[in-house]
Specification:
The complex is a heterotrimer of chains A (109), B (254) and C (576).
Chain A lengths: L7 H22 L6 H21 L7 H37 L9
Helix pairs in contact in A: 1-2
Chain B lengths: L1 H8 L2 H9 L17 H36 L1 H9 L3 H27 L3 H31 L21 H37 L9 H25 L8 H4 L3
Helix pairs in contact in B: 3-7, 3-8, 4-7, 5-6, 5-8, 6-7, 7-8
Chain C lengths: L31 H5 L4 H29 L10 H20 L2 H15 L7 H24 L12 H5 L4 H28 L12 H33 L12 H35 L6 H14 L15 H29 L8 H24 L1 H7 L3 H31 L5 H28 L13 H34 L42 H7 L21
Helix pairs in contact in C: 2-3, 2-4, 2-5, 2-16, 4-7, 4-8, 4-14, 5-7, 7-8, 8-9, 8-10, 9-11, 9-12, 9-14, 10-11, 11-12, 12-14, 12-15, 14-15, 15-16
Chain lengths: 109, 254, 576
């Protein structure tokens, strides 16, 4: 697997995109999109990260193994977050059931 | 990555010479004895660095998790606290780091295509300067926090703004410890990065890097880009989360 | 590759004054610097052997103290505060400084390059650095333990550890934090080595199962250890700055600590177990003279255990106020993670069936592993059941469960592996009679120690208590049985120490392939030369390709000079 040399033009285009996206995220933060606020902010951040990974870090031109390592790292972070949050977010359901319970000794949380 | 560096140290100018000599019977000066060829060594180094970065994702990940949990618990407190951060400095720093990623990518490119030592060092020096600028701005921000009694140590922390109904001082303090923990860990990684960049620049000046062998530059570049990516997430999460809330930064006087 | 001039064809008694018949990694150079600054993976493995053994025996001393206290119902040997320190130190030393590093850092470091036909690991300098980091972590932790100790339990739960404990929590945490980087670098080294440095012809499915096991273990090292690192940092921050991350009074959540802690610490138990399973695969194959049944399934089961092991950590938290819905998910996946382990046990058993079985010491340990791991694993499933866990959580049932896995499983595998590869590592045979005797003593002592603890736990004896009621006399009977067992086991563990050391001077010289076994590590001399192989092997055979004994003479030990081995180039006669 010989090394692929990325043309400088690609770097400059990606750089431009990153700057634009940064401006975009600042601008969008000042508008209230309701529940979409975080979604928009994270979509922009993930897009920027993907651009850096694919082009600055050469993953676009690299082996599948490297791609697997990148995906694995973020996937594992997702495991940590999703399963932990599944506890925190489902505690409300437990609370609700306790409150609906007719057993007088059980007070709310 | 240090392996190749140290190996090359012993063979400074010889490495530059060997790079232009077709390697028929003499192994490249930078080839370690346990590898069969430079290609294998390069692959190993690259995979090693990527695995290290995957590990770093998990390291920072714990802090991101804490952020998500407490922000969900205390949304107004976090928004109010975030509005007190200087978003302009944060945005400036984001731009600085993105520039530094560009210059680092160009430094790797310069070594890959065999540009002169001067060109290589130029790009690396720019990267280092931009990194130092980032750290300087962070120092200013941290000093501001110190001045405003926002260092989150029990007994020192004091929130001077008025508190609205759902917000308690403790919850605002929670935001600030997360802010300091995450940006502090990030800054530590930047300091280590610049410290590693200096000997690499020195080696580049000595002509150690060529199209055949430039692993330390490439691998350091991966690390540097990773540190940039962490900041790409930190900036919106810490600085912009409350911008649309209750008058935003302007209401907080920023 | 050994020659007629080199290693002997059959094990011979060591003549006086003769150390080794040929140049190898042990006698290539002498002097303390050649050991402390070595880049040879085999010497680094021995550095680890010395330090890991030290921490193991120190952890054992604390275990003796615990068992002595528990012989009588009253807390009469030590105070409760001191007792808290005893079990904390036992746990910290055993988990972080013995169980997690032992097999990967000793046998993994030694064997992985040999098994794949490489000259060394991918990053020899990082390998040496890993050992120094391990030592630094060990020294810091030891300092914390001896300065005044830690009383939080090895799990250092908040808010006790962050707010109320008066022990050296931050210092011990620092030691463990530092030690974690040793793990991470070792895992990194292994994965890169296995991917990039296999000899020609050594395809993925020709790799020994020991390699698959260590690959899976390395995945856990890399993706799990950083999380405990950040958790320790947060505990230190909380203790030093009182910021409230885990303090409910300040809006924090102590259960967050448990999530972060167990996210690593559950996969950590698979770090402790998987390498041992790799050893069992090697030993069962060799001493049944059969290919492992279902090689592909066993290989993939290692990966499955590593991956699924990350999805079950909440089963340590069923009673912590974790949401019951999350508890159900974790419970279900915990049952799923038992399946790949069961696949291994079934496949080992199928390997034994109609195999040509011999009962050398490594095989005794491997067989012990299968039985004891079965008990430990099944009781783990009891604990994974939500309702039953409420009854036995934090009792001696849990203690018995994990000791069956860690001692009955991991340690048995470790001892089996040490015996199996001892000839390769030292060039000497250990005395088989004493070794079998010690194995028996350890097995009997182990079961006598821990089986009563299942009963105690089920009857309600809590863990981490130094006293128990007088009016339940059967409890004391069981505790006395347990302590007796521990003494027997302790003596049993000392016996190998004695004969291993004895063998290094007086043991018979070993051939390149004494058992004989397949695998590249057995096709070079015992002990191997520094560069492992005279010439790079080219692999044309499958894993565990056993031949009838007559054919084995030709392709096996390789002591006969200039005999071409299947697919291997004959040596030039110069290098062993």
């Amino acid at each position: 697997m010989s090394e692929h040399i990325v043309p400088r033009k690609v770097y400059f285009v990606v750089f431009g995109a990153l700057m634009v996206l940064t401006a975009l995220t600042v601008f969008a933060a000042n508008i209230d999109f309701g529940v979409l606020n975080d979604v928009i902010a994270m979509t922009i951040a993930v897009t920027k990260a993907v651009l850096v990974i694919l082009f600055f870090m050469h993953v676009r031109y690299g082996s599948r193994l490297i791609m697997l390592v990148v995906v694995a790292g973020f996937f594992w972070l997702a495991i940590l977050m999703v399963l932990t949050l599944s506890d925190y977010n489902s505690r409300k359901w437990v609370e609700q059931r306790v409150r609906q319970s007719t057993i007088p000794s059980e007070a709310g949380r | 990555m240090a392996t190749h560096e140290i190996a090359a140290t012993h063979h400074g100018p010889a490495a530059a010479h060997a790079a232009h000599v077709p390697a028929e019977h003499s192994a490249h000066a930078a080839l370690a004895h346990h590898f069969d060829n430079l290609e294998q060594q390069r692959e190993a180094g690259s995979l090693g660095m990527w695995i290290f970065l995957a590990q770093e994702v998990m390291f920072f990940g714990g802090l991101f998790l804490a952020y998500v949990i407490y922000r969900t618990r205390f949304p107004e407190a976090f928004a109010a606290a975030s509005n007190h951060l200087n978003w302009k400095l944060g945005a400036f720093n984001t731009a600085v780091l993105i520039c530094s990623s560009l210059t680092m990518a160009l430094a790797v490119w310069a070594a890959q295509v065999g540009r002169t030592r001067r060109t290589q060092v130029f790009f690396m020096a720019l990267t280092g300067l931009l990194g130092a600028t980032f750290l300087g701005v962070k120092a200013v921000e941290y000093y501001d926090k110190y001045r405003d009694h926002l260092i989150p140590v029990r007994g020192w922390f004091h929130w001077e703004q008025p508190l609205s109904a759902n917000v308690s001082e403790q919850n605002i303090q929670m935001f600030y410890w997360i802010y300091f923990a995450m940006t502090g860990l990030h800054a530590l990684h930047m300091i280590i990065g610049i410290a590693i960049l200096l000997p690499i620049m020195y080696r580049a000046w000595k002509g150690a890097y060529s199209p055949e062998y430039h692993a330390p530059v490439e691998l350091f570049g991966l690390y540097w880009h990773f540190v940039d990516i962490v900041w790409i997430f930190l900036f919106p999460l810490l600085y912009l989360l409350g911008a649309h809330y209750a008058g935003g930064h302007a209401a907080a006087g920023h | 590759m050994s020659t007629a001039v080199g290693a002997p064809a059959t094990p011979i008694d060591a003549p006086r004054g003769v150390r080794f018949p040929h140049v190898n990694y042990l006698n290539a150079n002498y002097g303390i610097k050649s050991w402390l600054l070595t880049l040879d993976h085999k010497r680094i493995a021995l550095l680890y052997l010395a330090s890991v053994t030290f921490f193991f025996f120190l952890g054992g001393v604390y275990a003796i103290a615990i068992r002595l206290e528990l012989m009588t119902p009253a807390g009469d040997l030590v105070e409760s505060q001191t007792y808290n320190k005893l079990f904390t130190h036992h746990g910290v030393l055993m988990v972080f400084f013995f169980l997690i590093p032992s097999i990967p850092a000793i046998l993994g470091n030694f064997l992985i390059p040999l098994m794949i036909g490489a000259k060394d690991l991918a990053f020899p300098r990082l390998n040496l650095l890993s050992w120094y980091i391990y030592m630094a972590g060990g020294i810091i932790t030891l300092w914390a333990l001896l300065s005044g100790g830690v009383d939080t339990g090895w799990t250092f739960y908040t808010p006790f550890s962050t707010t109320f404990s008066n022990g050296y929590v931050v210092a011990a945490g620092l030691g463990i934090f530092v030690n974690g980087f040793s793990s991470i670098l070792t895992g990194l080294n292994f994965i890169v080595t296995i991917h990039t440095m296999r000899a020609p012809g050594m395809t993925w499915f020709r790799l020994p199962l020991f390699i698959w096991a260590h690959y899976a273990t390395s995945i856990i090292f890399i993706l799990g250890t950083p999380v405990i690192a950040i958790t320790i940092l947060l505990v230190a921050l909380e203790r030093l700055a009182r910021i409230g991350i885990f303090d409910p009074a300040l809006g924090g959540d102590p259960v967050l600590f448990q999530h972060l802690f167990w996210f690593y610490s559950h996969p950590a138990v698979y770090i402790m177990l998987l390498p041992s399973m790799g050893i069992v695969s090697e030993v069962i194959a060799t001493f049944s003279r059969k290919n492992i049944f279902g090689y592909t399934f066993v290989a993939f089961s290692s990966i499955a255990i590593a991956v699924f092991g990350f999805l079950v950590w909440g089963h340590h938290m069923f009673t912590s106020s974790q949401s019951i819905y999350a508890g159900m998910v974790f419970s279900f996946i915990s049952y799923a993670v038992a399946i790949p382990s069961a696949v291994k046990v079934f496949n080992w058993t199928a390997t034994l069936y109609k195999g040509s079985i011999s009962y050398d010491t490594p095989m005794l340990y491997a067989l012990a592993f299968i039985g004891l791991f079965l008990i430990g694993g099944m009781t783990g499933l009891f604990l994974a059941a939500l309702g039953l866990d409420v009854h036995v959580h934090d009792t001696y049932f849990v203690v018995a469960h994990f000791h069956y896995i860690m001692v009955g499983g991991a340690l048995m595998g470790y001892l089996g592996g040490m015996h199996y590869w001892w000839p390769k590592i030292t060039g000497r045979m250990y005395p088989e009679g004493w070794a079998r005797f010690a194995a028996l003593v350890i097995f009997v002592g182990f079961n006598l120690t821990f089986f009563p603890q299942f009963l105690l736990g089920y009857m309600g004896m809590p863990r981490r208590y130094h006293a128990y009621p007088v009016d339940a006399p059967v409890w004391q009977v069981l505790h006395v049985m347990s302590t007796s067992g521990a003494s027997i086991m302790g003596v049993g563990m000392l016996i190998p120490m004695v004969y291993f050391i004895w063998s290094m001077r007086y043991g018979k010289f070993a051939t390149a392939n004494p058992w004989p076994a397949t695998g590249l590590e057995w096709r070079t001399a015992s002990p191997p030369p520094t560069e492992n192989f005279g010439t790079t092997p080219v692999v044309t055979w499958e894993a565990y390709e056993f031949r009838p004994m007559e054919e084995t003479e030709v392709i096996g030990p390789g002591d006969t000079p200039a005999q071409p081995i299947d697919g291997m180039q004959p040596t030039d006669g110069k290098n062993p």
